[in-house]
Design a protein that fits this description.
The protein is α+β, with helices and mostly antiparallel strands. The chain contains ten helices and nine strands. The chain has two domains: 3-80, Arc Repressor Mutant, subunit A (Orthogonal Bundle), CATH 1.10.10.10; 115-257, 2-Layer Sandwich (Endonuclease, Chain A), CATH 3.30.870.10. The radius of gyration is 23 Å and the shape is elongated.
Length: 259
């Protein structure tokens, strides 16, 4: 994948566009206008899938299809057109923000009827990101056992938004981490200028005391576990139960005092 394709793929991903859509657009940028046959061959994508992608790119105003020619020619539209897409997204987000208080008010009776214990499962990177974002609503100190850092998996854009939200809310957190954690974090930050948590404290937990094989987070009445490794299944679970959360917080404090 070329440098241009890498940049486009990363940016399109943040917009919610697929890698295939990014590959098609990058091919048009690098090789110029093409017929569908040429584009399918040059972008290495099946024609049936290409036919599904073209309306998506056209709706986003990222391509122009000239149908005057016999077979039709597809051309990349200027990247400036993304400003229109971003403006639409901002407008949609503002509308959703305005409707959120009404939604909360409508759901309040249902929430009050929830049982004392609730279990919520999450799958995939987007699910674990949702779990992490849930933390930003914490009203108590967050304590955690961290198997690895978040940045390399969650992505820089999400990580910076998450850090900014935690800092804006003044969230205080402590973490016990494996012995390689701080070295990995230092190496990561050398290549990335990203925000850091203002109110975070961490300690390395020797493996002979306790081996951290996955990540656990405790806040409010929530006990959250997740596994996010490149060579394993990405999943997580939240247990909403005050007694369970209190018990795991006590376990964390016992380990904290031993470091």
């Amino acid at each position: 994948m070329s440098h241009i394709q890498n940049m486009i793929t990363r940016y399109f991903s943040e917009l919610g566009l697929s890698d295939e859509a990014a590959g098609v657009y990058a091919t048009l940028i690098e090789q110029g206008p093409q017929t569908i046959s040429e584009l399918g061959r040059n972008a290495d994508i099946e024609r049936t899938k290409l036919y599904r992608l073209l309306p998506v790119l056209e709706k986003a105003r990222l391509i122009v299809i000239d149908s005057e020619y016999k077979h039709g020619v597809i051309e990349a539209a200027p990247l400036d057109n993304l400003e229109l897409l971003l403006a639409e997204r901002e407008s949609e987000i503002q509308l959703l923000k305005q409707e959120l208080p009404l939604l909360k008010q409508s759901l309040l009776p249902s929430v009050q009827q929830d049982p004392k214990t609730k279990v919520q499962f999450y799958r995939g990177a987007s699910g674990v990101k949702q779990m992490l974002w849930n933390e930003t609503a914490a009203t108590t100190e967050i304590v955690s056992l961290l198997h690895q850092g978040l940045q390399q998996y969650a992505g820089l854009a999400f990580f910076e938004r998450w850090v900014a939200k935690c800092n804006d809310r003044g969230i205080v957190s402590r973490s016990l981490v494996n012995e390689a954690f701080f070295e990995e974090q230092a190496a990561w930050h050398q290549g990335h200028r990203s925000a850091k948590l203002k109110n975070w404290d961490g300690k390395a937990l020797p493996a002979e005391i306790f081996t951290i094989s996955h990540s656990m987070i405790v806040y409010d009445n929530v006990l959250a576990y997740f596994n996010w490794q490149p060579d394993g299944e990405v999943f997580g679970v939240e247990l909403h139960n005050q007694q369970l959360a209190d018990t795991q917080r006590q376990f964390f404090e016992l380990l904290w005092r031993q470091t």
